[in-house]
Q: What sequence folds into this?
């Protein structure tokens, strides 16, 4: 055969190989994640992807539903004492994925493990309110003094140091997942690769950087899922995810905002939900120029946020007047204090002692959308004499600098760990949380601190919100941020998917109620 | 020859020590704290200190360095800070996938590149040479990222004959698009070099002689021209092997290919020191061994190389 003939034959063979069978649809839900979970060990699930998948595999005492409401998980009911310090959880029948029954002792073990200084979990703080927990974590108290106990195999008692209104929400966070003691002890550091929980799903296979396969865990508490399994592909590129969705290989796709227009008109099932997230530019209140409240207020008046939302975010957000997202509020947001008013902004800056304008740096992490946002903000600021230089750093370096208060200002957002106003106001503005704990602007106001402290001890939701509202009102006036927006998340679903809702909190969708046609 | 190989292999040790030392200290010079990256967005300094102690990052740098070298001597690359998995295990799992991708791309680049180059040099079809060379110019300059997305759009979405991305359990269908994407720039280079090699050879006396003695076109091109024109191609392919490995970084990200390139990028972003050190060291070793193999293969292709250096 001639060489040319050979090539033709090869091409035909290749075409046959690639042309044959596309895999058909089955009743496995196909999802994608942009970043791979680092671990599925609850104690180390500090990032979004890890927490999300870990929550499918582990059960907690209580869980979030897609609306962020607390629902039963291992505990089918619980009682809170009148002084709001003692909790009694009654467990229901459940089994780990290795078949062993879950007993109250497993909850005690998991919580002690999370608190154990030897574990070195970055998320131990969620149990910090438990009596004896902080002492144990700081090696000044014994393990046995931690007030989490198993009265019998199906009852867990927890006593708090002081009332914490959102304690149930803390227990629903991924890090409070209940692990199987013998597997943790057998696997050690490898537990995060082959976890053993009593959640609705069991990890059947994990091909790194490729795909995770989940199958139903027969022993999970509560109703069994209506689908045969979940496949989670790891696809780093959003454009590739879109291609996979368009070819029918994904059932849910998170729509990048830049693609929103296309999907709005594409005739597909487009879902949207306001995220429990706030985007802001933090202003370093510890030193000039942002030490002066007038300069902080001025930058808030200098930027037309509504226009940036429309032009740069393609409408994917609502302007933040304040800090707490609308869905967590007990009352409307604060009245407008910072209308777009460049002339007034300029006056304030002059009053503050900068008649010739000023130079600042805005730090950001690498992120294309952030780049476009900041360039437009840079333009607005220049118009009132604030010459902003944009500094881009990779995530780890960015966080280190911001935690230490190096930059004048920084662009960042805050995702809720649990749906509660406390989760926005306390970490971000309480002076005890300055630095890596969340308050990265160094904001400190004694009145705000005392309002937040009082609210934290209050169990009446209405009165508690009044205190949070008062604190937020002060923060809004003090302007430690250039307040930006509450982003909206958009997702599209395949036509075969039913019963799916975007969860308000990242681990609030466990795919029990979804179906595939 | 044997002493040549032995000497080169012996040289490997100091080079690897240099690479290891450089990567180790580079990690600590560049900004970015691994513990802060792992810890999420809400932590206190004490928690960070505990995590640092757990990962051994609280010890003096020199001790850490000695510990690191000691591990290397026992072929122990340590554990990932992020996943807590042994680095060697992860490399063992991923490298074959990158290798398959790189070798397939290399194969496509050589076969198509030589074919296009030869066709362009042949010059019997008017205008074809110009079209092919324009094509190869585009090939050299086209960004991998854009090409990958274009191919996904065309073959996966429009024609639906190939899956858009993923490893597919090692299916050849999943390999086609990433391999082709990765091969593209190299293919274009090879085509240009082949063409000029062919054109040079076509002007040689022995070709005129071959034609004069009445040999057919296929025999002239195949036996006389091709053989001589391909020597520079071999050089390019050998020297280019590293670019396949590094090119795999982008290609693997676009196509969600679970190879070593993506692994290193993720590790760099998360400041996962043991993974970066282990993977860089591994890549360096591979690179050195491939270069050695290329040097040795010259000896077989061209006897002048073998006798030229050492004996004089």
A:
């Amino acid at each position: 055969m001639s060489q040319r003939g050979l090539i033709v034959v090869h091409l035909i063979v290749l075409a046959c190989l690639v042309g044959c069978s596309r895999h058909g649809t089955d009743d496995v839900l196909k999802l994608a994640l942009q970043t791979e979970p680092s671990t599925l060990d609850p104690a180390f699930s500090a990032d979004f992807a890890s927490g999300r998948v870990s929550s499918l595999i582990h059960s907690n005492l209580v869980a979030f539903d897609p609306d962020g409401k607390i629902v039963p998980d291992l505990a089918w009911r619980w009682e809170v004492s009148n002084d709001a310090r003692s909790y009694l959880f009654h467990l229901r029948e459940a089994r780990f994925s290795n078949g062993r029954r879950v007993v109250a002792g497993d909850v005690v073990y998991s919580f002690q493990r999370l608190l154990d200084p030897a574990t070195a979990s970055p998320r131990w703080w969620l149990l910090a309110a438990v009596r004896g927990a902080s002492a144990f974590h700081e090696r000044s108290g014994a393990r046995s003094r931690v007030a989490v106990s198993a009265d019998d195999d199906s009852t867990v008692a927890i006593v708090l140091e002081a009332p914490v209104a959102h304690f149930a929400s803390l227990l629903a966070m991924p890090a409070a997942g209940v692990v199987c003691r013998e597997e943790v002890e057998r696997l050690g550091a490898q537990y995060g690769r082959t976890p053993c929980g009593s959640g609705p799903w069991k990890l059947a296979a994990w091909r790194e950087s490729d795909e995770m396969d989940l199958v139903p865990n027969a022993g999970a508490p509560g109703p069994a899922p209506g689908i045969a399994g979940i496949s989670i592909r790891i696809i780093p590129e959003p454009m590739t995810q879109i291609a996979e969705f368009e070819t029918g290989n994904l059932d849910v796709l998170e729509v990048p905002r830049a693609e929103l227009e296309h999907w709005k008109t594409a005739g597909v099932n487009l879902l949207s939900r306001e995220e429990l997230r706030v985007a802001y530019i933090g202003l370093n209140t510890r030193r000039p120029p942002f030490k002066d409240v007038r300069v902080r207020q001025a930058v808030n008046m200098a930027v037309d946020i509504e226009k940036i939302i429309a032009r740069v975010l393609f409408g994917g957000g609502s302007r933040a007047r304040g800090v707490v997202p609308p869905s967590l509020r007990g009352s409307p947001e604060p009245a407008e204090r910072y209308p777009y008013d460049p002339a007034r902004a300029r006056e304030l800056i002059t009053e503050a002692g900068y008649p010739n304008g000023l130079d600042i740096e805005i730090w950001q992490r690498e992120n294309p959308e952030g780049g476009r946002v900041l360039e437009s903000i840079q333009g607005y600021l220049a118009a009132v004499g604030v010459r902003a230089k944009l500094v881009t750093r990779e995530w780890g370096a960015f966080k280190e600098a911001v935690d230490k208060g190096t930059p004048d200002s920084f662009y960042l957002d805050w995702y809720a760990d649990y749906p509660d106003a406390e989760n926005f106001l306390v970490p971000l503005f309480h002076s005890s949380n300055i630095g890596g704990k969340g308050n990265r602007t160094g904001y400190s106001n004694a009145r705000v601190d005392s309002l937040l402290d009082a609210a934290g001890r209050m169990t009446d939701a209405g009165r508690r919100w009044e205190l949070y509202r008062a604190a937020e009102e002060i923060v809004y006036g003090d302007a430690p941020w250039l307040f930006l927006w509450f982003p909206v998340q958009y997702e599209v679903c395949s036509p075969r998917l039913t019963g799916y809702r975007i969860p308000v909190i990242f681990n609030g969708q466990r795919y029990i109620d979804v179906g595939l046609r | 020859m044997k002493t040549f190989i032995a000497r080169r292999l012996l040289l490997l040790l100091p080079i690897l020590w240099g690479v290891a030392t450089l990567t180790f200290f580079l990690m600590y010079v560049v900004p970015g704290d691994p513990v802060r990256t792992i810890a999420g967005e809400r932590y206190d300094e004490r928690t960070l200190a505990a995590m640092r102690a757990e990962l051994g990052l609280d010890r003096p740098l020199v001790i850490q360095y000695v510990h690191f070298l000691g591990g290397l001597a026992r072929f122990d690359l340590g554990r990932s800070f992020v996943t807590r998995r042994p680095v060697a295990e992860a490399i063992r799992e991923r490298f074959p996938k990158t290798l398959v991708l790189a070798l397939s791309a290399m194969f496509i680049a050589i076969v198509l590149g030589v074919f296009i180059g030869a066709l362009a040099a042949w010059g019997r079809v008017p205008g074809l040479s110009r079209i092919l060379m324009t094509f190869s110019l585009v090939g050299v300059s086209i960004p991998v990222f854009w090409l990958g997305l274009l191919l996904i759009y065309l073959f996966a979405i429009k024609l639906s004959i190939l899956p858009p991305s993923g490893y597919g359990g090692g299916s050849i269908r999943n390999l086609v698009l990433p391999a082709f994407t990765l091969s593209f720039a190299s293919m274009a280079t090879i085509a240009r070099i082949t063409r000029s090699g062919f054109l040079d050879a076509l002007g040689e006396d022995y070709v005129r002689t071959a034609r004069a003695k009445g040999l057919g076109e296929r025999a002239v091109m195949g036996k006389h021209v091709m053989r001589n024109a391909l020597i520079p191609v071999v050089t390019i392919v050998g020297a280019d092997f590293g670019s396949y490995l590094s090119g795999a970084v982008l290609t693997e990200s676009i196509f969600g290919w679970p190879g070593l390139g993506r692994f290193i990028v993720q590790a760099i972003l998360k400041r996962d020191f043991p993974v970066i050190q282990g993977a860089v060291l591994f890549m360096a070793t591979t690179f050195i061994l491939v270069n050695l193999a290329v040097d040795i293969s010259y000896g077989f292709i061209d006897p002048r190389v073998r006798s030229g250096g050492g004996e004089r």
Q: What stands out?
A: The CA atoms of residues 66 and 502 of chain A lie 7 Å apart. The longest helix of chain A spans residues 461-478.
